[in-house]
Amino acid sequence: GDSVTQMEGPVTLSEEAFLTINCTYTATGYPSLFWYVQYPGEGLQLLLKATKADDKGSNKGFEATYRKETTSFHLEKGSVQVSDSAVYFCALSGDNYGQNFVFGPGTRLSVLP
Amino acid sequence: SQTIHQWPATLVQPVGSPLSLECTVEGTSNPNLYWYRQAAGRGLQLLFYSVGIGQISSEVPQNLSASRPQDRQFILSSKKLLLSDSGFYLCAWSQAGGDYGYTFGSGTRLTVV
Questions:
Q1: Could you give the CA distance from residue A35 to residue B103 in angstroms, rounded to a whole number?
Q2: What is the spatial distance between Cα A13 and Cα A11, in angstroms, rounded to a whole number?
Q3: DSSP assignment letter at B9
Q4: Measured between CB atoms, does A89 come within 8 Å of chain B?
Q5: Could you list the pLDDT tens digit for every one of the 113 residues in chain B?
Q6: Beta-carbon separation of A103 and B51 below 8 A
Q7: In chain B, whose CA is at the least distance from the CA of A94?
């Protein structure tokens, strides 16, 4: 079945450091790919998405490019802030009915001042 | 615009007591609805999903049940809570068609004592 693998962390960075959180997937067909962010004590929020190969999703300084050849959707940010401390989930939607949504295990990011 | 409401935000219940968590969606019709559980420090586990009134699919056998009495209402229940039912419960909705991703509620922190 479809699956998502991501580095589980925790990832600890200093403020203004460069961030990469790796995400790779296994899926049949052509899934849509997502990154969600969960701040402490809150639900998940959609951060960005890409629906086809070579698409780049971006939001709040974060970017991820849908790479079909490497089945990857790595999350990057050029300069992290303390307020970016959260858990980040990579996910894919494997069909057209929204029922086959697969989440990665989540990566906890801590940004230190 | 669409919104999702989930309540209560926190709940402390004794072992053996019943449970009812409610989730409602506004601003859309015929959404797909989901209940997830997130154990402390762990990823998301899909518990139930529903594609229509009265239609419930269970992903894992457990002490919980779900119901959808109205198009935009999704209820998670238990007749007798166990200690292992403690966790963070998240409701989510999506449109049919995976490109849209999921929108999550703010979650319910359940502690069974």
A1: 12
A2: 7
A3: S
A4: yes
A5: 889 999 999 999 999 999 999 999 999 888 999 999 987 767 888 899 998 999 998 887 688 999 999 999 999 999 999 999 999 999 999 886 556 678 899 999 999 99
A6: no
A7: B98
